[in-house]
Specification:
26% helix; alpha/beta; eight-stranded antiparallel sheet; TIM Barrel; nine-stranded mixed sheet
């Protein structure tokens, strides 16, 4: 809350935040429901907005819990929900239509076809993939039927959004479930020595804002949910100056000076400039956010001695990192001792003693990640909790009186106050005058939302005192007719409707048991009898019966080339296509009698997501790789579409447009990897040398009748059983 209010105070038009589950930053300090309600009320009172992240994949067993959270979000009157899971998207669209849907960057939408598909699904704003260039953003914006949002500042993931399995593979902590442990920030052994191969520089694009404004981008996004309030305040202030200055050079320069004083990693304009692709990572230094300010010389009893290379001040936030780049602890400087004396600050060249009970070691690196700034905590605690109910009133005014209907409570009829009004001699009553008075129609249980006014006789006069009296009459009648303790909100009714529909949902009889597959090009070898293989769309096909695999990433300028190749294969009799990204549905939408199968990294983790994929045209979907056996069974029990289980093969753990400069590497635990490059998409793929074969670590096989003969992983996606 403190950080959100700091963002508003610095000039943010909107903030995005998460609740305690189903958000991609579960390690952050997230909101409780009453805090969200208070923040939304404060934001709306001040003309600002609040967007809530529900941007992870959701398991079958969690669908009702996720729907309940959506109901809470609607009750708090958030302005939109940011989603990754297409099942969650469908739940919101079908049962909570009052909520706007923003497609998370985790959906990986990177071209105009993807935006078009998202728009057809009910999305009102797309947050674009962070690994696209300014030219690509411009081309997408020129065709987009919905609002677009782009990241402009903050930490960058090396992998394409929503596709990374690196944290899962190396430790069982899924980045697609908000639990990423950032193995990409660690040191790896390469042919050139130890390198931080995947550790990205931060994104900062003050110089690009004027052009993005000219493109009509609806929203500029600053990554800040794991940041301190002072970082957020300074960053928002900088970009606010550019926007308010209409992008003039002076405002850009002033913003640049503010950003120089903001703790962070070394920064670049990210993927917006293709010339950066080979220099986006910092291979020779740990990717630690902050300003390097010293080294731990020794560790005492709840103290550490730090040799400073930059100043620190009481109240600063520090992060202490091991030289290997593993994530280290953070602390707030409470006391500083120099030469046995307490000090408020210490300077470069001095050795100081800091109080800390954190687990640190001699030689660890100290970074300043935040400075003391205005504390909004007391103000946050003072914000009132808004009334539970928010009613929309429809008012009708005629020469005979005034009546009111309440949206959602039409069963109660209209509440009326009769009064004969005279014709106005000078100033007739206005809708604004009536709305202003009826905004006072509230108590501790409810408040007005949208008020609409229909003036039947436009030339009548209503004195202010009379209008107030009529409003009180209607309010008394309305409150007498309702037991607020038993009243259910629209969100409660929507949740009940979803639960009824979901409880009656059963697996379609024609879906059968999941199909075993090894989704890999046959050119990669390791062909095993009984498994289904497929070929890349640009390979040579020996038979029209072979599945055609579309690329998971298609740059905007190659969409026409891809469509041409699809057309050629279709003319040659190919009817089976395998999709790995949302955009591909658009490329196939005009083709008749095609079979569409979806597989990794297209995310389908639950039956509602399967239903949405089926509505888009898929006849088979691959079960998301990170699900365990029980969740696969839960999914299968209700699946409306044929399922496929990845049985064996090599899975890309991280996919990026960054040019990494290495071919082979080993991790801290001696796991070996190879970097593969795809010419069409210009992507680099981190491939494990070890084969993904869940049969190696099976527990008991499923007892579920339909899939009793399948090899299912007893635990989530893992390698050698290393799981949290």
């Amino acid at each position: 809350m403190n950080t959100a209010l700091s963002a508003f105070d610095a000039g943010a038009d909107a903030v995005y935040c998460g609740l305690d589950k189903f958000n991609a930053r579960e390690r952050g300090v997230n909101f409780k429901e009453d805090e969200l309600a208070r923040l939304c009320a404060y934001a709306h009172k001040n003309g600002r907005k609040v967007y809530v992240t529900l941007n992870t994949l959701v398991k079958e067993s969690e669908l009702e819990e996720a729907a309940a959270m959506i109901a809470d979000i609607q009750s708090c009157r958030a302005d939109a929900v940011i989603v990754q899971d297409i099942g969650v998207l469908r739940i919101i669209r079908e049962y909570f239509p009052e909520l706007r849907i923003h497609a998370s960057t985790q959906m990986g939408i990177h071209n105009s076809d993807g935006v078009a598909v998202a728009a057809s699904m009910g999305v009102s704003r797309v947050i674009l993939e962070r690994q696209i260039s300014m030219d690509e953003i411009s081309a997408i914006a020129s065709k987009s039927p919905v609002e677009l949002e782009v990241f402009i500042h903050g930490a960058m993931c090396c992998s394409l959004s929503g596709t990374c399995l690196f944290s899962s593979w190396s430790g069982g902590h899924s980045g697609n479930r908000g639990k990423c442990r950032q193995p990409c920030r660690r040191r790896f052994q390469t042919e050139s020595g130890e390198r931080f191969v995947f550790s990205m520089k931060d994104l900062a694009v003050p110089d690009y804002i004027p052009e993005l404004m000219r493109m009509g981008i609806a929203s500029f996004k600053i990554e800040g949910r794991l940041k301190n309030p002072d970082y957020v305040r300074k960053t928002v202030e900088a970009y606010r100056k550019i926007i308010d200055g209409a992008g003039e050079a002076a405002s850009v320069a002033e913003a640049g000076e503010i950003l120089k004083r903001t703790p962070g990693r070394k920064s670049l304009s990210g993927f917006m400039n293709p010339g950066n692709f080979s220099v986006l990572t910092s291979p020779d230094e740990p990717g630690v956010p902050g300003i390097f300010c010293g080294i731990v010389e020794s560790v005492g009893n709840n103290t550490i001695n730090v040799k400073l290379s930059d100043r620190i001040h009481a109240g600063d936030s520090l992060r202490i990192q091991s030289p290997a780049g593993d994530e280290g602890p953070a602390l707030t400087v409470s006391t500083i001792r120099v030469d046995g004396q307490n000090q408020v600050k210490a300077f470069a060249g001095q050795t100081c003693v800091l109080r800390s009970s954190k687990n640190v070691s001699e030689g660890d690196l100290v970074y300043r990640i935040g400075e003391s700034c205005r504390d909004m905590s007391a103000f946050a605690e003072s914000l009132p909790l808004p009334p539970l109910f928010n009613f929309d009133f429809e008012l009708t005014v005629s020469s005979d009186g005034l009546s009111c209907a309440v949206k959602g409570l039409e069963r109660l009829g209209r509440f009326s106050a009769a009064r004969r009004f005279e014709k106005a001699s000078k100033k007739p009553v206005s809708a604004a005058q009536i709305i202003d008075e009826f905004m006072r129609m509230r108590n501790e249980a409810y408040q007005p939302g949208l008020i609409t006014v229909n003036i039947v006789d436009p030339d009548i006069f209503i004195p202010a005192s009379v209008l107030k009296e009529l409003r009180k009459q209607i309010q008394d009648s309305f409150e007498s007719a309702i037991d607020f303790n038993e009243l259910k909100s629209p969100a409660d009714f929507a949740l009940e409707n979803f639960k009824r529909a979901y409880s009656s949902m059963h697996r379609c009889s024609d879906t059968g048991k999941p199909v075993k597959t090894a989704f890999a090009s046959v050119t990669q070898g390791e062909v095993e009898p009984g498994l289904i293989y497929a070929r890349d769309i640009f390979e040579s096909f020996s038979s029209a019966d072979e599945e055609v695999v579309l690329p998971q990433f298609c740059p905007e300028d190659k969409l026409e080339l891809l469509r041409k190749r699809i057309g050629e294969l279709y003319e040659n009799g190919h009817r089976a296509f395998r999709l790995r990204s949302l955009y591909s549905f658009f490329a196939l939408k005009e083709l008749q009698d095609v079979k569409i199968h979806c597989s990794f990294p297209f995310p389908v983790a639950n039956s509602i997501a399967g239903l949405e994929a089926k509505a888009l045209g898929a006849s088979r979907v691959q079960i998301w790789l990170e699900l365990d056996k029980l969740e696969m069974e839960n999914f299968h029990e209700k699946s409306p579409v044929e399922l496929e289980f990845f049985r064996k093969g090599r899975i890309p753990l991280l996919v990026t447009r960054a040019i990494l400069g290495v071919k082979e590497l080993k991790g801290f635990n001696e796991d070996a990897y190879t970097i593969k490059y795809d010419e069409f998409s210009a992507l680099s793929f981190l491939m494990p040398d070890s084969l993904y074969d869940p049969g190696e670590s099976l527990g008991e096989l499923s007892e579920y009748e339909e899939i009793a003969d399948m090899d299912l992983p007893a635990k989530p996606f893992n390698y050698r059983g290393r799981l949290a």
